Amino acid sequence: MNSSAVIVVIIVAVVVLAAIGAAVYLLGGRRRSERLKEQFGPEYERSLAETDDRRKTEQQLGEREKRYRKLNLRSLDDRERAEFQDRWIAVQRDFVDDPDRAVERADALIVEVMSARGYPVTEFEQRAADISVEHPVVVQHYREAQRISAANARGGVDTEGLRRAVTSYRALVEALLDDDGHRQSHEEPRNGQARPTNEETQV
Questions:
Q1: Where residue 76 falls among pLDDT bands split at 50, 70, 90?
Q2: pLDDT at 31
């Protein structure tokens, strides 16, 4: 084989290897995208709508996962869980007489439960980001409750709106109290609906 033929063979081999490498890279990226979509469900779509950039969205969600894995989370013991459940029931009962106060207490109770579980609770957006890793459906309820709560602080939210806020807070309270390290896929569907709640806890 003369030198020209050797060069051609080398060039073809390089092109083939490059094509294989590109295909593997694209396949890996596609699989990563599919995994993140499955993992984060509606939170993936919400983040994508914010960034309008798939790569940036997936980078951010990947960073959430890394941060979450470093958290020192713990399950609540039976006494703690019972105490928080009683306090939550009291919040819902108080809604009838003072819905504004009930929403405030619900928001404060969420922070207490998260702190007891080991979540950092310095700011809302970080709390929501941490929760979204395991509870991408429930965190949508949390965002809605927080939005209504903030609007109520400025005035102008009617009783029905406050009721929606308490109902949305309830979804997260139940997820945090019931979560013993199981994946959300075993607890609730990812079609935007939280799993059914007990009759006695409904507002």
A1: very high
A2: 78
Q: How big is the chain, counted in residues?
A: 203
Domain regions of the chain by residue span: 3-70, 78-201
Cβ count within 10 A of residue 59: 12
Residue with tokens 């105490």: 83
Distance of alpha carbon 44 from alpha carbon 46, whole angstroms: 5
Burial 80-89 (b: 16+ CB within 10 A, else e): ebeebbebbe
Query: What is the phi/psi pair of residue 202, to 5°?
Result: -85, 140
Round to whole Å and give the CA distance between 84 and 60. Answer: 32
d(CA 183, CA 104): 29
Which DSSP string corresponds to 92-147?
HHHTTT-HHHHHHHHHHHHHHHHHHHT---S-HHHHHHHHHHH-TTHHHHHHHHHH
pLDDT at 149 (0 to 100): 92
Give the DSSP letter of residue 196: P
**Counting beta carbons within 10 angstroms of the beta carbon of residue 24, is it exposed (0 to 12), middle (13 to 18) or buried (19 or more)?**
exposed
> What DSSP state is assigned to residue 187?
T
Q: Which residues contact 67 (CB under 8 A, 6 or more apart)?
A: 129, 130
Tell me the pTM.
0.72
Rounded to whole angstroms, the Cα distance separating 102 from 88 reads 10
pLDDT of 66 over the 50 cut = yes
